[in-house]
Structure formats: C-alpha cells, structure tokens
Design a protein that fits this description.
alpha+beta, 18% strand, Beta-lactamase, 5-stranded antiparallel sheet
C-alpha cells in the first residue's frame, strides 16, 4: 500500500520563514557585538602607552602638592656648659697635636677653640710614641696633665692605657693617691694645729713604712724632724700619727671635702670624682693621713686642681679645656670664664705649703730628678715645688709613681701646674719626676729652632 506524502500548508511555511529570519538577525547582532568588543580591546592595547605618557606629562605640569616637611631646628645662639661638655665628650682631645677641633650638630658645625700648648703636646706625644716601642721600661699606664696656674686652662693632656684604651688616664680617678694625700694632711695640720714649717715632729723606725708600733713607740732611737722635712721626705709615720692622733677622722674627712674629694667640679669636660672615705679602725685613719692605702683614688687632673689652691693663695680653680666655641657663621656662641672651685686653705697656709713643696725639690724625694735645676738655663728662672708619691697595686704587678707640682717664672709670675702618674711594670722606666721636669722645661723654653732636637728637650734620666 502506498503512503501518501503530506504537504505543509502555506501558513506553516510562513511561520517557519519568520522564525528563521529572527534567528539570522540575532546571530548578526551577536557577531557585531563581538566585533566591537574585539576592536575595543585592540584600541586599548594600542592607546595605553600614549595615555600613560600623557599622565606623566600631566604630573609634570600639575604636580601633586607635597606633604608638609618639618623645618630643621635653628642653631642655638648660645651654648651652656652642659652642651659644651657633650661636644667635648665626643671630641678626641687626648694626645692631640692641634688646639682647634670641629664638632657636628644636628644640621650645623661647631669650631672648638682651646688653649692647648701645641708645642708641649707634640713633645709629649713624641715621647709616648717612643715609650710604646720599648721592651723594657714601657709603662703599663701613663697620664700627664699641665694647667695654667692663673687661669685654669688645660695646656697639655697626654697619656695611654693599653689595658683599657677607652679610658682617659688623665681624667679617670683610678689611681691610688699615695703620698699626694700628704698635701691635704699637711694643710690641715697648719690650719687646725697651727703647725709651721719648722714645727718639730717625731717618728720611730723607717721613713717609708707604717707599722702600728711606729705610731705608739718612742724610744732612744726616735728621730725628730720638722714638718717641712717630714713632708719633703714623705715620712709616713709622722703623717700617720698626725692623721690618727692629732687631726682625727672628722678633720681629715672635712679637709678632703674642702679640697674636692667625692665631688666633681662644673667643668667643660668629664671629671670623675676622686674618692676618700675616713672609715675603719684608728690604724686605717693613720693610713689615710699618710696616703698609705689603696682606697683613696684620684686622677692627674684632680692633682693639678689640688695644687692650684696652693699657688693661688688658698683658692683652687675649676680646670677648663675650652676657651670659646663658634658656629658655621663664625659667631661666638660660647666663651669660658675663670671660676674659683674651692677655698680649702688660707693664704698663710698656702704660703707654708709652697715652702714645703719647694723643699721636696731642693732636698726631698724629687731632688735626684731635679738635680742641677738651679744651674739650668730655663729651670733656674723658675720657682719649683712639688710632691711625690708611690704605691703598688694589690697584686704588686704595677707600681704607681706620682709627681704633682708647679713651676712659676720668677719675673713674669706665669705658673704652670703639672701632674704625672706612671704605672711601672716589671721594670722601672722613666720616673714621673723626670717627665714633670721636662714638661716645665719645654713649656718655659723659647720656641724651638730647626737645630733643636727632641732628645735635647726631653731627657729620660733616672
């Protein structure tokens, strides 16, 4: 049986035609949108570098406003001693060959003017460099200070401490005062006991020991000496008895405070306080009176401060390193002034102490080192006085050797105060007295000529 083919009606054909037309229109719209999207992406890729360049140009033409910058602090118009001390602390003045130093502030510079004697400094530095090369007699530590006796200005500061290079041996109060404390005890004896240079005093036994029996015994072998002889020859039993029996703990402590122990003056450089404590047994008071102990500690710069009271009629001076400071514009923003530190003794006592210290040079413990000074072309023009001292450390590996004193020109009255401490090791090298004598000789000599040599000015005899 044959099938009959069914034909679509006209209406059905018309409907199919309209649907196909819509599908073709929709496909065209999709293709157009996709084409526009592709063109947009391509255009962005091509235009991006140009747009970035335009942006940079715009930033240059119309830069963004910068954030507000804090203004730099203005340099101070004046400096106080506290600020000066901070500047000096960060300035390497020890062993310097110049008297001019530069320091940096937050945004400006300072020029520090000192009154260091550059010729004396150069000689001391040369001597120290030579000592460092020695195999025998090289000091374990050494500190040397010179101060103008009428102004308080430091004229020289040199030394070294191989065991602790960061420590300034001229300002560190780490050395036993030894017999230098006899300056305090003798001053107290003159002030409180009305002693004079010729007052008779007594001792038994040897001069440089201090046994308990020497403080109490008086036999047929007891010796009589004057105060100036006991001082100049540094006789321990005499000053031990003065400390224990005649002055006592309270007076010794009082005079130590008057001279400046356990205190630091208002200086323009670091000045650690010297230490003194009058405690312990009666015998310990005797040890303190003559300096035969390791608890009383001082520095070379304190030693010159003590002597300044002797040469200034009883008034000690505040030592100072800085003369003036100027800023980058050369405006003076600090100027130091002379200051009295203490008045530990009267002018009459000071005159007696000068006599005692002169005796040390002429016939006392420093006589060998200063032998022939009265015939020396330079030293003969000076009045020279001083005090020696020596004491070993507890381990007996270092012997501390002291000299402090003064040289005053007989005509001009210009005065230089010096203090030297040498820590001798296994072998005794150049003694403190020799260093001090050479410092006086160099300072008061005329400027060196080309023919002068270091050896001529700096002797190393014993």
């Amino acid at each position: 049986m044959h099938s009959i083919k069914k034909e679509h009606s006209w209406r059905q054909l018309q409907t199919d035609y309209i649907q196909q037309k819509k599908k073709r229109a929709t496909a065209r719209r999709i293709r157009l949108i996709a084409g526009f999207l592709c063109l947009g992406v391509a255009a962005c890729a091509l235009l991006w570098p140009k747009l970035h360049t335009v942006s940079k140009v715009g930033d240059r033409l119309f830069p963004p406003k910068p954030d507000k910058v804090a203004s730099e602090p203005a340099p101070p118009k004046q400096l106080g001693k506290f600020e000066v001390k901070a500047l000096v602390r960060n300035t390497d003045i020890l062993n310097s060959k110049t008297d001019l130093f530069f320091a940096d502030g937050p945004s400006w510079k300072y020029t520090i003017h000192t009154l260091l004697d550059t010729r004396l400094q150069a000689e001391l530095i040369g001597m120290l460099n030579r000592l460092k090369t020695l195999d025998r007699g090289k000091p374990e530590i050494i500190g040397m200070v010179a101060m103008d006796g009428s102004t308080g200005f430091i004229k020289a500061m040199a030394g070294f401490n191989p065991g602790n290079p960061a420590t300034n041996p001229c300002t560190a109060a780490i050395f036993p005062a030894a017999s230098l404390f006899k300056i305090v005890t003798a001053s107290a004896a003159v002030e409180k006991l009305n002693c004079t240079a010729t007052t008779p005093l007594y001792f038994s036994g040897r001069k440089y020991t201090l046994y308990k029996r020497q403080l109490t015994q008086q036999t047929k072998y007891t010796s009589q000496v004057t105060l100036e002889t006991a001082f100049s020859e540094s006789i321990n039993p005499v000053f031990g008895k003065l400390g224990q029996f005649d002055l006592g703990k309270a007076v010794l402590n009082d005079f130590a405070q008057k001279f400046g122990f356990n205190q630091s003056p208002d200086t323009d450089f670091d000045f650690p306080a010297p230490h003194f404590a009058a405690t312990g047994s009666d015998y310990h008071i005797a040890e303190l009176g003559c300096g035969f102990n390791r608890e009383t500690l001082i520095s070379p710069v304190f030693a010159v401060t003590m002597v300044s009271a002797v040469v200034n009629k009883g008034q000690s001076l505040v030592p100072r390193l800085v003369d003036r400071i100027s800023n980058s514009n050369e405006d003076q923003i600090y100027k130091s002034t002379k200051e009295i530190y203490k008045t530990p003794i009267s002018p009459q006592t000071a005159a007696t102490m000068i006599r005692l210290m002169k005796k040390t040079i002429s016939s006392g413990t420093a006589r060998k080192s200063f032998r022939g000074y009265s015939r020396d072309k330079i030293l003969s023009n000076l009045v020279i006085g001083g005090k020696t001292g020596s004491l070993s450390n507890r381990e007996h590996t270092v012997k501390y050797d002291w000299f402090t004193g003064f040289g005053q020109h007989k005509t001009t009255k210009e005065t230089l105060i010096v203090a030297v401490v040498v820590g001798h090791g296994k072998y005794i090298g150049t003694r403190a007295c020799i260093h001090a004598k050479n410092m006086l000789k160099i300072y008061f000599s005329t400027p060196k000529t080309k023919e002068d040599s270091f050896a001529k000015n700096y002797q190393t005899g014993s």
